[in-house]
Design a protein that fits this description.
Blueprint lengths: L3 E5 L2 E2 L6 E2 L14 E6 L5 E7 L4 E7 L1 E8 L4 E8 L4 E5 L4 E6 L5 E6 L8 E3 L13
Antiparallel strand pairs: 1-9, 2-3, 4-11, 5-10, 5-12, 6-9, 6-11, 7-8, 7-10
Length: about 140
């Protein structure tokens, strides 16, 4: 899908605590800064489906492991990726794609570096059963 970018991120290991890079304004996928927020998801729980009409998402998982599923209703294609400390990457999702995600470990947290500030009228939400996707067993 041409509206998705997966970028490997740098981790700097240090005996007193590690550093996890997230994004620079010179990175591919940077579409401006609106806000940054963290979200948690419990193991085996699924949040979604949500489609942003203007916002570009830049998703990073510094704690736990989260499976993201992206759906393009035009092509009818799905894209799936699991992000974690062991697969430390940034997932950039451009507007008009449906997004859902599931917690894999006991404690899971994502960071979204959003291109615009949150606007409740900018996104469309539907229940999980509205998009036919079969989540694999954990």
């Amino acid at each position: 899908m041409d509206k998705i970018i997966v970028t490997s991120l740098k981790q700097i290991h240090h005996p007193k605590g590690d550093i996890y890079h997230a994004m620079k304004k010179t990175d591919r996928g940077f579409e401006g800064f609106g806000e940054a927020y963290f979200s948690t998801i419990n193991k085996n729980e699924i949040k979604g489906w949500k489609k942003h009409t203007q916002m570009t998402l830049n998703l990073v998982v510094p704690i736990g492991a989260i499976e993201f599923v992206i759906y393009d209703e035009e092509s009818k294609e799905f894209f799936s990726i699991k992000l974690s400390q062991n697969n430390y990457k940034r997932l950039t999702v451009k507007p008009t794609l449906w997004v859902a995600f599931r917690g894999i470990e006991e404690h899971n947290m994502l960071l979204n570096l959003a291109s615009i500030e949150h606007d409740p009228n900018e996104a469309i939400n539907v229940v999980l059963s509205d998009i036919d996707y079969r989540w694999s067993k954990l």
